[in-house]
Amino acid sequence: MRRTRTNGHARGARTAAAAAVGVVALATLTAGCKVETVGAAEPTALPTEASSPPTPARPTPSPTPDDSKPGGGPASPSATPSRSPSARPSPEPRTLMSVGDRSRRVRELQARLRQIGHFDRSPTGYYGSTTTASVQSFQGKRGLSRTGRTDVVTWERLLAMTRKPTAEELDPPTAEPAAAKPDARCMTGRVLCISKNSRTLSWMIDGKVVSSMDVRFGSQYTPTREGAFSVYWKSRHHVSTLYDSPMPYAMFFSGGQAVHFSSDFAANGYSGASHGCVNVRDEGKIASLYAQVRNGDKVVIYW
Questions:
Q1: Where are the beta strands (DSSP E) in the chain?
Q2: Which segments in the chain show pLDDT lower than 50?
Q3: What is the pLDDT of residue 85?
Q4: Do the bridges between strand 233-239 and strand 298-302 make them parallel or antiparallel, or are there none, so unpaired?
Q5: If we measure between CA atoms, which residue out of 160, 117, 159, 120 comes closest to residue 138?
Q6: Does any domain span residue 129?
Q7: Which of 141, 170, 199 is the last residue of a domain?
Q8: Are 200 and 185 in contact (CB under 8 A)?
Q9: What is the DSSP pairing of strand 200-205 with strand 298-302?
Q10: How far apart are CA 69 and CA 81, in angstroms?
């Protein structure tokens, strides 16, 4: 019995010692301690719920082309960004005058071209095919693009080679005035005296010429009537119902035949013909004539 109690005390002492060791080990784990092994890599500690979350690292911004040096490194704050200009074609010179324009400036263009042999007729102020061809001729002689349009470069080159046109160059007198030997029917009253021989129209009052201008007539298939007539209707913005063509400043004298401005005559000269009307190619002159002529004024057409 004595031996058994001793063994029981020994077993109790060993159990108590083991329990004490367990308590120490549990306290050590709770305090976060760890066992370090010499020469071994340090394991990464995982954060606990009580620990603060790690602060995320701020990303380093990639340099943009404006913030970079030509070599690719970041530019200093004081450095001026280097920009590569994009390759673009040079813009065409600005156009000042082109086909269809009517102005005093077009008349000056024609007069200047005539000074240096690129325009072979009287200025009309209308930019047609003849003026286009004259501009192309001038441009070709000067090594410019043969566009036929009067751009800034063409105009400045022409100004440098010519002088300012005189009033007579801008509005030259008719080469063969009809008043030199007018028909006898033109000598009294208010008359549109039109000569087929000289291809001129003279506005006459009591035998005196007020103004004179170049005209053209109908073709052999649609001839302009000859004789003495009178203006019976004026139509400023008239359009032909037969041919659907404009007839500005129309002054009708016989059926559908009238004296009127012709842009085709202004552009192409005598290479064309009318459908029987009396065409005037100078818009400024016929505009003035239209303002003066009244219904009832005489129209005399003769050879």
A1: 95-97, 150-151, 190-195, 200-205, 208-216, 227-230, 233-239, 246-254, 257-261, 278-280, 298-302
A2: 1-10, 13, 15-53, 63-81, 176-179
A3: 55
A4: unpaired
A5: 117
A6: yes
A7: 170
A8: no
A9: unpaired
A10: 7
CB 283 within 8 A of CB 266: yes
- C-alpha gyration radius of the chain: 51
Predicted model pTM: 0.55
Element (H, E) at 113: helix 104-115
Measured distance CA(301)–CA(201) in Å, rounded: 9
Number of compact structural domains in the chain: 2
Residues 219, 257, single domain; the answer is yes
Q: Virtual CA dihedral for 263, 267, 269, 275, nearest 10 degrees?
A: -40
Kindly list the distances between the CA atom of residue 211 and the CA atoms of 102, 126, 152, 180, 233, in Å, as whole numbers in the listed order.
Answer: 21, 20, 35, 13, 21
The angle that helices 129-141 and 104-115 make with each other, rounded to 10 degrees, is: 50
Clarify whether residues 212 and 278 are in a common domain. yes
Same domain for 141 and 116: yes
Domain of 218?
Answer: 178-302
Please check whether residues 112 and 149 belong to one and the same domain: yes
Reported as a single tens digit per residue, the pLDDT across 174-204 is 654 444 579 999 999 999 999 999 899 999 9
**230-270: pLDDT as tens digits:** 999 999 999 998 888 999 999 999 999 999 999 999 888 88
